[in-house]
Amino acid sequence: MAETLSLVSLLYYTGITLLTLFLPICIHEFGHYIIARRSGVHTESISIFFSVKKPLYQKSISILGQKTTLNIGYIPFGGYVAFPRDALHRISPWKSIGIYLAGPLANITFGVCTLLVIHLAYMDWNPVASTSYTMEKLTTFTTATTHFFTDPSLNKLAGPVGIGNTATKIVWNIPSWFEYTAWISIALGLFNLLLLDGLGIILSLCRYIQKSLFTPFLIERIESGYTGFIIALVMIVTANDLGLLNNPLWSALFWIVFVALCLIVTALILVSTKEQIKFNQNTAYQS
C-alpha cells in the first residue's frame, strides 16, 4: 500500500512539474518558430522537453502554412527548434538575431501580460493599480536577478525538481499557479537571453563583423561546446535541488565534472578558432 502511494505521489509530482514547465517552454519554442517562418527559414521539428531515442508524442503539424514535426519528450530540461544544417547562416545576421530574440521575448511578454491580468483581477479591475503593482514586482525580480550575478549562489537557483516542489504546493490555487508559471516564463526568457539564445545573438553579431572567421564550422563547434556547458550547469542545479551537493563526495564529483566540461569547451573553441584562422590563411595564400 505504501509503495502504491509513493508511486502515485511520484506520478502526481512529475505531472505537475511537467505541466508547470510545459507552457513557458511551448511559448518559447513557438516564438522561435513563428519568426523563423516569417524569415523564410524552414523548421524541421519543434521539441518540447527532451527524450532519449523516441519522444512520448510525435505528430506532423502545419502552422502558418508550413509542415513540421511536433515532439513532446519526458525530460523537462527545456526544448529546441530544429532547423536544417547551416540554415541560420544562410540568412542575414539580423534575421538570425530576430529568430534568437523571439523565444525570450515571447516568454517575457507572456509572463508580464499574465501578471497584469492576474493582478487586475486582484485589484478589482483597476488598471492603474494593477500596472503599478506588476511593475513593482518586476523591479523586485530584476533586482534579485542582478544580485545573483554579483553574488552567485546555487541556493538561489531552482531546477525542475525545485520548480516542482513549489508548483505542487500551489497548483490547486489556480491564480497562484498561473502567477508562478508567469514568473517561470520570465525567468526562462532571461536565462535564454543571457546564456543560450544570447550566445546565438553574439555569434550572429560576430558573423556580421568578421564573416570570414565566424564560419558555420566554427559557430557549430562553439554552440556544441557551449551546450555541453549548459547541460553541466543544469545537472549541478538539479543535484542541488535533490540535496546531493550537501554530500561532500557527490559535491566534489559534480564540480569535477563541471570544471572538466568547462575546460573541454574552452579547448574545443580555441582549437576550432585556430583551425579556422589557419584555413583562412591557406585560402588567402592560394588565391
Explain this structure.
- With 287 residues, the protein is an alpha+beta fold.
- The protein contains 7 helices and 4 strands.
- The chain has helices at residues 2-38, 93-122, 127-150, 160-170, 174-209, 216-241, 248-286, and strands spanning 45-50, 57-63, 66-72, 75-82.
- The longest helix has 39 residues, at 248-286.
Query: What fraction of residues sit in β-strands?
Result: 5-15%
Unreliable spans are 283-287
Order of helices and strands: HEEEEHHHHHH
- Total of DSSP H or I helical runs spanning 4+ residues: 7
What's the Cα radius of gyration?
A: 21 Å
Overall shape: globular
Distance between the termini: 77 Å
User: Kindly state the mean pLDDT as a whole number?
Assistant: 80
Strand order of the largest sheet: 2-3-1-4
Question: What's the total number of strands?
Answer: 4
Largest β sheet strand count, sense and barrel closure: 4 strands, mixed
Structural class: alpha+beta
Helix content: over 70%
What structural keywords apply?
globular, 10% strand, 287 residues, alpha+beta, 4-stranded mixed beta sheet
Q: What topology does this entry show?
A:
Elements lengths: L1 H37 L6 E6 L6 E7 L2 E7 L2 E8 L10 H30 L4 H24 L9 H11 L3 H36 L6 H26 L6 H39 L1
